[in-house]
Amino acid sequence: MSAGASWSRVAALTAAVLDACDWPALGAIYCNDPVEARWPERRALVQEHGLALARRLLAALPRGGTSLWVGAGLAEVPVLLAETMRQGRQVLATNLRVAECELLNRALEQAVPEMPCRYQPVDARTLAAAAAFDHLGCVSVFTDPETWPVLSEVAYGRLAPVQIDVAKFVAEREQARELAAVLFGRLSRPGWITTTAEEVSWFLEQAELAGAAIEADEELVPTALVGDPVGLLQVR
Ligand SMILES: C[S@@+](CC[C@H](N)C(=O)[O-])C[C@H]1O[C@@H](n2cnc3c(N)ncnc32)[C@H](O)[C@@H]1O
Fold first, then answer.
1. Which has fewest Cβ within 10 Å: 55, 81, 83, 191?
2. CB-side exposure of 179: number of CA atoms within 13 Å?
3. Tens-place pLDDT, residues 188-205
4. Is residue 226 lining ligand 1, measured as CB closer than 6 Å?
5. Are residues 76 and 137 in contact, defined by beta-carbon separation less than 8 angstroms?
């Protein structure tokens, strides 16, 4: 697919993908959330916040290059389209939920068959091992309640200290650290990381260990579905 698409074209294709989504099936995946009942609201949020994030990122990311999007879902549709179609970048999108990947891929195939990117239902570490990338997208992954039930509650301030199962917390923290280390270690420099305020510390720790300099963007935008504030880090 050639680069250089206008923002209105990216918005139109985003709308076409959203139109092609099987909303009742997606709703069943998103924690039995009756998402189809709130379809107009969700659709508007993905369009508004997803495109705002895409504009912000594309102002910083170089042409060409590769992004690895970890835990990518519906919210990332606009940015995946924008990177590919405006900036000529390769995008790799991974998500552990097989059914969600299938549904999103079906919508992409129907609405934008020429789009080369497909959601891959594999652990991000598998893709990271095989690809070089200069941008890592990691939005609400380290706070994912399905993957890290204890870390998620702690990160969102929903668990009182007396309620923490310390053994589980330590086990999850070590798994999360290992994931952050693999992803950070494979990011080329200069590189960029898009992540949320709640999970940025996983990467700040890795940057310190690696002696890398980090410049954090002041501007944060809310993500479309989870609503976490997301921003951009530059890594040197
Ligand atoms: C809370 S969802 C966030 C989805 C989306 N980024 C958003 O903001 O709406 C977290 C996602 O991270 C994915 N995830 C967690 N660990 C992962 C890993 N190691 N590799 C790939 N995806 C992962 C889960 O499968 C889940 O789809």
1. 55
2. 19
3. 999 999 999 999 999 999
4. yes
5. yes
**Pocket lining: 123 vs ligand 1, CB cutoff 6 Å:** yes
Residue 44 CA, ligand 1 centroid: distance in Å: 21
Show the domains of the chain with their CATH numbers.
7-235 (3.40.50.150)
In this structure, the number of other CB atoms found within 10 A of the CB of residue 67 comes to 27
Cβ(18)–Cβ(2) below 8 Å: no
The C-alpha atoms of residue 5 and residue 8 are separated, in whole angstroms, by 8
Phi, psi of 212 (to 5 degrees): -90, 145
How do beta strands 229-235 and 221-222 pair? antiparallel
Residue 178 tokens, joined:
């290992």
32-71: per-residue pLDDT in tens?
A: 555 556 677 888 999 999 999 999 999 999 999 999 999 9
Task: Kindly report the pTM of this predicted structure.
Answer: 0.96
